[in-house]
Fold these 4 entries.
Entry 1:
Amino acid sequence: MTTDNNNLAELNGATKRFGTVVALDGLDLEVRQGELLALLGPNGAGKTTAISLMLGLLQPEQGSARLFGQSPLRVEPRRRIGVMMQEVNPAADLRVREQIDLVASYYPDPARTEVVMEMAHITPLARRFYGKLSNGQKRQVQFAMAVCGRPKLLFLDEPTVGMDIQAREMMWATLRRLIDDGASIVLTTHYLEEAEALADRVVVLAKGRVLASGTVPEMRALVVRTRIRCISTLAVEQVRDWPGVGSVTRDGPRLDITATNAEAVVRQLLGCDEDLQELEVRSAGLAEAFTELTQEGTK
Amino acid sequence: MTASLEVSPVPMSTGRLLRAYWTEAKYECIRLLRSPAFAGPFLGLPVALYLLFAVLLYGDALRKDPKGEGALFMFLGFTIFGVLGPGMFGFGISVATEREKGLFALKRALPMPPGASLLAKLAMSMLFVAIIMATMIAALPLGHLKLAAGQLAALSVVCILGSAPFGAMGLFVGTWASAKAAPALVNLLYLPMIYLSGFLIPMPKSMERIERFSPAFHLHQLALWAVGASKAAPNAGWMPWVHVVVLATVTLVFTWLAVRRLARVG
């Protein structure tokens, strides 16, 4: 049964400690119907702990975790989820098809193994032993194991680590199609372009708390800075003192400037350096927003 | 062809549930049979040692023994020796390894039916014991011993079911030990149990009281009872149900301790 507000999974005031380290500090987090939620944060921010609580692998010391409105320790809500975890090594001496058959047997109405393998682009690997695969291929098989039960909610912890660019893009396309088909996805990733390309909503964690939450444009807007790059002979020290300049670095002939008032800085640049070339001005991306947020959040 | 996944309905039919248990057990057995370095010694060693001692080394002596007690002792001794290994090492090493590889955590997060993984390992160890029984029974005529089909059937049932407590002991070790430490720790239980149970090497009279503290001793007593030779055994006055209770208690206690730890640490 789903809760009234249609949250598929949620943490309410969840606190979890490991010894003296506070991994989660009264965290509130919800996964909504039909969304791809990206959990971002530096190492140790609490992303994997938050997922482990929602999966019932860990218990909160305070607060609660719910999965489809029920305790995640119950098997019934877990029949509606798929899981791809970090640092899991399925049995090396089972073939790829057998790994998927095994996990599919846990579900009431799984997809056909052939369909799952085709979707994960691993059909040619069907008879290969799992232990003989490359790291990227292993992640593709783990992805197939995660989706074989036709889950309503997918938890993907760093799913594309070790994949080549082609495999990563194929997985992105598959994730978009799963969302279109009505699934919801919780994704943790270190690749910010992945979150930028896929996420409906981003939650940035640091020290077990939510630093910021919103859509990708909303997150970008939190950081008002603009990036300016150009080839210029102006000295870094000179530019740094101008109003509206956040930081300045030199990369060979190029100046790399972050600015809170881009228009004023650009006018001054053009006025001071007649030979200025290759001027680029762009809004800060998710990467800059993330870096700025987490630096502030971990201070 | 376009692959598509729709949202899954929730109810799990009884047929699907049984299939999940069956699939888990099937792949547990397949995995171990694909590891000849692991399966080979457990499957082949009991009968190889039986043939070495009961045929090659002591064959003449056993043939001249009118009561056949020596032949029976060797046959049962190597059979019990075979029963201990798959459960203790199979559970101990595979549970420790799977814990370390994160597989237990993954299966806890996935909707694997309760206990399916442990029942699969139990099925695996029982299958291995059944294969060992078949090899021992095939070698029986060479060891100058005759047992009726009924005796062999009773003995097989006792040995297959009697592998459970040793699986539980292995499971307990596997929930505490790392994958590297598990074989050594299982050996710390396995080797003393072989020597202190008196089923392979008779204990001196003065030390026979130690035997009753070993689960393997109680399995040996049940094996003697199964072939109708319990009067020849030490502690012959004990009723078979005493041994059954001891072995059942060992199974339940070690399983309970292991499951409690798995629930806490995965």
Note: Chain B has one domain: 20-265.
Entry 2:
Amino acid sequence: MNWPHKDLIAIQDLKPEEIGHILDMASSFKEISKRDIKKVPTLRGKTVVLLFYEASTRTRLSFEIAAKRLSADTTALSASGSSFSKGETIMDAAYNVMAMSPDCIVIRYPYAGIPKKMADLLPCSVINAGDGYNEHPTQALLDMYSMKERFGTLKGLNVAIVGDIMHSRVARSNVYGLKKMGASISLVAPKTLLPPRVETWGAQVLTEFDPVIPHADVIMMLRVQKERLHDRFFPDEREYSFFYGLSKRRVDMMKKDAVIMHPGPMNRGVEITCDAAESARSIILDQVENGVAIRMTLLYLSMGGTSNVD
Amino acid sequence: MWIKGGTILDPVSGMTQVGDIHIKEGIIAGIYPGGKKGKAGDVIDAKGLWVLPGLIDMHVHLRDPGYEYKEDIISGCMAAAAGGVTTVACMPNTYPVNDNPSVTKYIVEKAARHTAVRVLPVGALTKELKGTDIAEMGLMKEAGIVAVSDDGKSVENTSLMRRAIEYAATFGLPVISHCQDRYLGEGGVMNEGDLSSRLGLGGIPAASEDIIVSRDVLIAGYTKLPIHITHVSTRTSLDIIRKAKDAGISVTCDVTPHHLLLTEERVRGYDTNAKMYPPLRTEEDRLALIGGLKDGTIDCIATDHAPHVKDEKDLDFDLAPFGIIGLQTLLPGIMEVHKESGIEFIELLKRVTANPARILGIDGGMLCPGARADITLFDPGARWIFTEECVLSKSKNSPFFGRKFQGRVVRTIAGGRSIYQA
């Protein structure tokens, strides 16, 4: 397949066959990470700049490792150590980075829309590593990869996404992607954490967790951000975890081969108990492993790769 | 001075006729339907043009004093003149706030020195726009304000709002209310709905406007005093105002051209020139607003001209300031509404001339002998594209760049003097 995109900004921009292509390619990239010498020369001489204007452990590390395994040179910049803390605007920072001729910019940003703006204005590739509560496309791709790896296909899969849907870019990207790939989605949250007009998203929307559990093949728990508590979206953690937390009782209600996912970082004891996180159903660490393969694939595709990898 | 051969449109008498206008000493000395033989002095050939009363824009931010880097009285009035606007009511959210007669005097005097556009300051309703103490409305009126408003926010304290309305009425000052529940739309940057959810942007629900519109209308009804609701943007707010009018409550309102021409769809792509308060709403709201112009619920069209410079606007959608400029696209925008809706042009013209004059209690907005010679010549057939180069404001923040308009201001006359020519 001839890859038509310079950038990856949103799952909304991808066709189902393009998502399929990424997921297929990722398998061959995953194999590289299992080798003794985990490095191929594919992107030698390419420069990848990681601009992370928001805290991140997994995503940043994952991109960096992915780039390095493909032999690209990487530089990472975070908000606190950059001129951002001196008041430089993000687009000024972007033009300055561009002046140093990177081949790809990976950007994580606290507000929606900036990766798209960069992609429109800069000649290099731009990969969105999460913007505000808009999209987090690589997370959705690694999630879909992990589901496909487990179930063989995404078509007809029942996926329940539970928690703070309103402020979640992970939920948005997953809904867009899973819908394109033929999965059925249930969104579960108190009404205060459901986005306005969520009923138009083409997913089943519920405020009760228990009824979806016996039907779900995948239960994806979303992190509850502590600051939401201060904003009075729910009364306290105890009540939240009683109604929306994945507990042992709920794990026991799951289908035989159903799995538990979480994009991380987890708040143990809030949206997920230790039993659930560590149960045999959890594929949370598979998600992290697959993240590297997905990001290798996207770096490769964005920077002009079209042929198959060996 | 003579203006000869143009089609004279007077929204007060309803006159739509080719004729000549004679101007003497800043006043319209005579109007001659069908034309008058012979000419003396200056003659402006207005053949093929529409001759309109100079427009009155009752909601403008001139940013002077304090934010002269965005706009000042001189540049703002140049933009007004280029838009055919000869009277502007300028909002008090300057620095310092226009909440005392010294600031009012500064504005009035600077305008008198530098521009023939009539600049009418709107004073603050509460001191420093803080919503806690009533501003010196009486002294400001002495210094030249024509209305009071805390534009940019609503007075949260309902009791204070009631007193402010009563106190303003003591001095015959209209109260202009910006309706926004502070908490309901908190953190929002665009209309709340399907699209805000999809774009990952914080929403401002229509209800945050509707709630305060209902409150203010109820206060007006209870106190039997007038209130003017500015920049109505939702279907429900309009319904509330319509019902209030039917019930005999003295409420008037205005709408901006951008809410008549654009919807929240314009936010796709995160263009910060589509970020303003109130936010662009849905197509349903837009059509309701056009309906409100049709049935007369909406009294005025006002721009909410809000200059912000490029480096302020060129930020993330979440962080960029609210507001767009509008003076130079007002009349072409009205033309577009006219063509889309079929509402008579002269009916729409009333909303930027006679009606705001009536609400503000000022003269102007009409063409008749004895009236002030504020006149706009408009070429109704001219097709043009609005670009950044056209802008005379110091700030170039408009969602209409690149838009094809029909109808263009070719000359503006204020106080009998030509102040703009295309």
Note: Residues 11-135+288-302 of chain A form a domain with the Rossmann fold fold (CATH 3.40.50.1370).
Entry 3:
Amino acid sequence: MSDTIDVPKALSGTGSWLDDRFHGARGLRVLMRKVFPDHWSFMLGEIALWSFVILLLTGTFLALFFVPSSAPVVYHGSYVKLNGLTMSQAYASTLNISFDVRAGLLMRQIHHWAADLFMAALIIHMLRIFFTGAYRKPREVNWLIGIGLFTLGLLEGLFGYSLPDDQLSGAGLRIFEGVLQGIPIVGTYLSFFLFGGPYPGDIIIPRLYIVHVLLIPGLILALITAHLFIMVHQKHTQMPGLGRTERNVVGQPFFPYFIAKGTAWFFFIFAALALLATFAQINPIWLYGPYSPVQISSASQPDFYMGILEGSLRMMPAWEWNFLGHTISFSVLIPFAVPLTVVLGGAAFWPFFEQWATGDRSYHNVLDRPRNAPIRTATGMAAVVFYGVLWAEGANDVIADYTQIPLYTVTWIARVLIFVGPAIAFYVTRRICIGLQRKDRELLEHGLETGIIRQLPDGEFIEVHRPLDEEERAPLEAKKVPALMPAPGSEDENGVPAPQAHGALGRARAIANRAFAETITLETNGHGNGHGNGHGPPEEHAEIGPGELPESSIPHSDPLLWHPHEEPPEQS
Amino acid sequence: MSDMEEVEGPEGSGAPVPPHRVIGTPPPTPRLLGSGADDGGAADGHGAEVEPAEEKLPEVSDYPAHASNAEKIVAFCFVLAFIAGCGFIAAYIGLEVGSVDSVFRSNLALGLSLSVALVGLGFGALIWVRQLMPDVEMVEERHELRSSDADREAFDEYFVEGTAASQFVKRPMVRRTLLLATLPLAAIPIVVLRDMGPLPGTSLRHTVWSPGRRLLVYGTNQPITPAEFSAPGQSITIVPEGYTDDLDVLAKATVTLIKFRPGELQIPTVSNGGTLIGTMNWTVDNIVAYSRICTHVGCPVGLYEQTTHHLLCPCHQSTFDASTGATVIFGPAPRPLPQLPLTTDAQGYLVAKSDFTQPVGPSFWERG
Amino acid sequence: MGWINARRRRPVVGYAALLLGLVIVGLLYGALTRTSAQAAPTTAQQDIANGRALFEATCSSCHGLDAQGTSQAPSLIGAGAAAVYFQMSTGRMPAKEVGAENARGPVKFTEQEILDIAAYIQSIGGGPPIPTAEQVSTEGANTALGSQLFMANCAQCHGFAGDGGALTYGKFAPAMTQATPTQIYTAMLTGPEAMPVFADGALTPSAKRDIIAYITETRVEPNPGGLSLGRVGPVTEGLVIFLGGMGVLVLIAMWLTAKRREPWDVAQEENAREARTAGTSGTSGTEH
């Protein structure tokens, strides 16, 4: 027990009552001391979590005033510019919330900004997980759950901003219906079933409403619970560092540190959203007007997370097949199916692909620094560029307007970049990773530059390097080199042929394996001869850069001199 | 063992290092598996990962002088948050809404007070954690995720025993009829969705345009004569008479009307299969009507450029040449916009000669 | 910047502070500067003879002495006073060069001179006249109908708030923040450059008034939700959430989880103590 405080009577009384019934003390005891590693990038998922909580709170408020109905009504309300206009009750009630309910506009804006922040945080969080390799065993299922959450978030946002039935989101619904209609064989049925008849019908708003406030949030809640439970049960990963191993977690205890930080973080996120809702107008539906399929505006974009679908629809050239009384429109199907499948499907597939390519089935609780996994990082950057080009193309008319580049030229640039961009990104990122690995090796060998210049007796100037201390060395030395699998067709010393190395798949695996195993070895054998010690992988030679002094020119006798390659002299 | 150690920086580095409290283990070196010091009970499935309270969290802030300063800052932040929170309530009560200007003021006041309250709380909490709480670093053992072989065997055993006891494997008739019984129940949730909507039938192939139906200007709902539409370079949005408020109809039937100079309009006579789909005979006085619904995914194609006579759809930039039958010249639209056959009625107003001769709007499987 | 960085481990904070300062200054500038509107034209007596003289001096070099057009410029016969008024009062004419299109620019003639030239062109070829003050007055206009007409006929080029948009081949539909009611009316009536003509037979004068009322009301309407972000829609909203929202939150996360260091003065004391005891032997460098 502490010297200064005791458990207050009220708390201990309640606590005993509960523990008598629920056996809570043991579990809570463990939970209170549970260690959570501390790194800023581990807080990104929490942005999404707290944004979701805020979405639930503000969404409940909005649901108390919103009327999810397409029934027409003639508007006579506070937004006098539209008085006399026939509009749906959904739109009219949204105008009501914005202009006639106190704090209504604030709640609407917080809600919409929180939805955008949720998706933005998820993207950055997923990228962090990917680039640090946190999806590896035993966390593959959590990675898949995360992708599921992202997809659900996409749909939830799409349906949510379509609820007010304004011109902008209505145009998006129209596009959604047109894409649906174009699906082979079942498209027209899907469209008529969803909309209750021909587009737009009068049932889509109530249907989207129930999906948006009940079905998807329920699924998201369930998946978030699973996601967090798995993360707590398996314990969080940690960045490589001093004292951090695969068998431990180093950080701060749950109670009170993690709770305190989490609470502070919640307030900051809520504050950021409140500031945005105060100073940055979002989704001004009164300016868009109520939806009519006759009307359209330029700069009609969906919310940013749908941007890649919009961009792929704009980028795709015309392509359609007509045969035997049937039509398939690839200019609609390919944008609909390909980008999300590539990005999300590829992401879902990646952990298993990496396991296959590296043969690595061990547990990974310590994260990789992105530079130490060049192929993974390069592939991730290629995917980011792929996603980014599609996303930017979704705003092509706005870009054309602001940059004064002709409209079609923007699209042509995107059509070229979508293929060229990821390839360049892959190549450049891989080179940068290898370069950074070389830099790490140099740091280990030569230490950090101190900025102190010394003059040698023969007149030459050198910069003094300080060797890294324990804490600085640890992340660099924690680098793991993926093992090279036996080459196809090879045999070990007993003549046993390499397993799983047959055929085209085996050869492909060998190629992938070689690529993944490529690394700059960290063997710091002092004088940087740099030829490694025969591990086998085709390593890059860590050539020593400029500044390396030929050994013969240094007199080693002077105790005040410190050769960059040697250990620092003992301090007297 | 669990001392509060002061870890020094490397020899001669000359830099001071803050007191570094490590709880739970000796100086941070990687722990070996199965070493004697591994007394966290890792093999125990109930895993008390932390030893029963022998190490203690420090009770005192790291730098007491600074902590008392920080305490004041934290308290100030929380008081500010309190004031701002009260401000929110006051603004809610005091500020009206009901016009654009009043909503502007109300939103600003409510939002600002809420933001200040939240920033105050967040900032206060941040300073509290960083300056008031002593800095600790704790190490916890990870337990093996894989169950022990004994556990796995026990699971297998129980599973096999239970399956055998259930007779599930031994009695195939029961098993198979169970499966049979559940199949319709699994299908029912799909089946009962049937009434979500009618079957499309042929409704996508037709619009409400019919012989003699007048073209009305959208918004004003007035019919129009060729004389009223005589200035070259004109374009206007058209809706069918009798359906000016029916969104379901308008989503397929709205039309763009364009007037050309003599000689500019050159629509070739085009047939698809045996059906005529475009011809100069469907124009009146160099006035042509095209479906406004884009053949890509259905946005209204409203953007008419008089000088180039291009119709541009703002959604995905499909571009159609209105002088040659709305042929596609850029963008993802796969087909030209259908042309509406035009003529005039007895009073001289523009009317449709018939419905479109092909389905309007986005492609679909049964389109043909 | 130095004093911010001196106490911080991460140099990124200095850059973040600088960026924040720039953003604040930019926002303040945007908020405090306003564009001025132009006055409506007066219907004073127009002098056709003066108009002719001005025309021959300035416009005939491209449009021909009889306004019949040349290879460089179209004929103005039938263009009408309305077209002349629009082009000249927005500064598009006299055009400096023949490009993809002419943009609004500084007006080179006085209002009276423009009316004179317009009267002259009207006299030699006819065409749509300049609307009267009643015709462009927005009193009693039906803005609800105006919004529908605008969204159906105008927004696809000019944007839902009249902020302009891109057309094909380098053309642009301009923003309508500065156009006077007469300029909007004459633009609709005459269809300048790529803009289609909206003659009175199809878009009645009453409908035009409704559209003008909608445009003029919308552009001065305050943004109750805060800064308008350009009234462009989700594109700028997405930029704000990434650069503003996520950017700021990441910086705060870095602050929340930063390694705790000794307070400044405690560290200074220890440094001083070390220097006293360590003597003058060379150190091997300072930490970064």
Note: Residues 235-270 of chain C form one domain.
Entry 4:
Amino acid sequence: MSKKMSIRDLREEEVMWSGNPACQGCGGSIVGRLIFKALGRNSARVEVASCAPGFMNIRVPSFFGPAFEGGAAFATGLARGYKVIGREDITVAALIGDGGTVDIGFQGLSGAAERNENIFWFTYDNEAYMNTGGQRSSATPAHASTSTTPIAAMSRGKTSEKKNVPMILALHHVPYVATASVAYPEDLTAKIIYGKPLKGFRYMHIYSPCPTGWGTDPKDTIKLARLSVESGMWPLYEITEDRKMRLTYKPRELKPVSEVLKIQGRFRHLKDEEIAGIQEQTTENWQSLLEMDGKRLF
Amino acid sequence: MKSEVMVGNKAVAYATKLARANLIAAYPITPQTTIVEYLSEFVAAGDLKAEYVAVEGEITAQLVCLSGSIAGARAFTATSGEGLLYMSHALHHTARYWAPVVMAVCNRSVRTMQPDHTDLLAQRETGWIQLYCENNQEVLDTGIMAYKIAEDDRVRLPVAYALDGYVLSFTAEPVEIPDQERVDAWLPPFKTQYPVLPETWDHDLEEYKKHWAQGKSINEPFTAWAGDENFSHLTMISWKGHDLQWRWRAHQEAMMRAKKVIREVNEEYGKLFGRSYGNGLLEEYHTEDADAVIVAMGTLASTSRAAVDKMRKEGKKVGLIKLKSYRPFPDEEFRDIANRIHTIGVIDRNISLGENGITYGSIRSAVYDMKDRPKILGYYAGLAGREVRVRDIEKAAEMTIKGAEAAPTWIG
């Protein structure tokens, strides 16, 4: 399991150049910086259609856009190709949005996980297709307003729940699955440092607020990400090769979900009973996770 | 050199083994399936040292080959019909990255498992070189030559070679297998021209900066490569390398250069291994004094040879053009033929619905500007695997000799 770190232990060397045309307060941009800061420069980056190709000046070989659904395929080929030329030391990192992970890219992702390809997959999850203007994805939480689940006379936002992809990946029994958040760089980095030397398929799902798409104040990105963890809406955990699940951050007391919801434009329409429903479900989920904490899953 | 009676799919597997492909990614589909099985057996037995990726679908198969090739592997995949169509947009990427991947295609019609050429011909705009084979020996030889063509510095494009499903894939014929040492001597291990590695990345980025420092736009080819046949993969790989018009132009130029390379490779192969196939792009059969010729691809060429032989015995001056390379298209070669022979009947085992047979259109276009334009007649035969008999070809040839003005005709 990952070793607890302090924020003071982060590597000093930056792998990202200064200068970044991302929106103000972009969570994904912070994710990119943190990931490659932790992985170091002996790595290669795969991206598919998402905001990432445009805004991340990261100084490692970067492969963009082989096909939206092809993130896992492209990473697989690179990893195998590097093996052929005797360069297995290069970490092949896929930095893919939620669309390229949970929807169009899911077949390839599941295939690569099942084959246990030697790649490290990072999902920066901003809970909708933000690069194309904020259409719903299957990572969009229930009730959220998006451009394809708008609030109108006949619609109260997304009707189905968020797809739980980290757990689905854990069921593939890969060497490492972790969730992370931009608000906890020490936790995120510790998990990457643990996962990097492992062989096989490693998966990290990172909560990455999108002020433009979520209707939040850019200065609140970290605050919002922190509140999401502290309210139990985005639990931080890891599942290691022995299938043991461990919560890496346990708030003493959960903050109410209303604190997270009320600062987001996409949830502005929520009625009290809807918020109560989300609260009930979040508390239940958190209780289940606490019961699983430290135990071997499935 | 030894000889073995083998089906077309085994010829593909042998060619891949002899070429020492070291990255294989493929998804089974009838009638390609046994290619995948033979190759798995070779890898499992240790006879072929390769990364074998048993992928979950054809798009992944193609993209694994593409990225593996960029990293430095000699990549191979095989598919058929629907699998090829599912792979289609990944084919564009492989070609647009100029990755020298080789793919075998067992031609299969779309709503049956039987062969026609519409599957691969529908991919003609993807930027792949396309070679069509007539028999299992040609399949094996082309499978080796394909790498020599794809990896030539003047080309660096992916190559697809096709064999008719069932007619070749599952039919056994005697095939000569070249010695491994001789193939090795001719086809050295693949070395990627511009390896994309973390330690060279800064240097590569410096090249961009130089380009920008000269006040040039990204819409111009990099100075270092202008007029350089050995163009780089670099910009295709970086996110900065969105597709640009000059790359389409460079791709087209490489395609045109490929004609010469295909001819050279075919000739070299003939000298070294005793077999070559016409000039590499097409093959002429009994055209020397012909009044009319028919054009056919794949196994229809074999049936046509039999028809030509029979008609020659009857005193009819008919010849055959076997079209092997559809992309790049041998347009000059067809003009040369049309200078000598003024009636050409084109048999298409494919159709571009709403227009006409695909090779018929290409050949007509090639001769359009000639002063003495020949008569080009079109025939459809063997679609969805319909049996094409010698007498069907004879019928087309007879109609061609008469040179009657007619819209393309359905045979069989």
Note: Chain A touches chain B through 40 residues (CB under 8 Å).
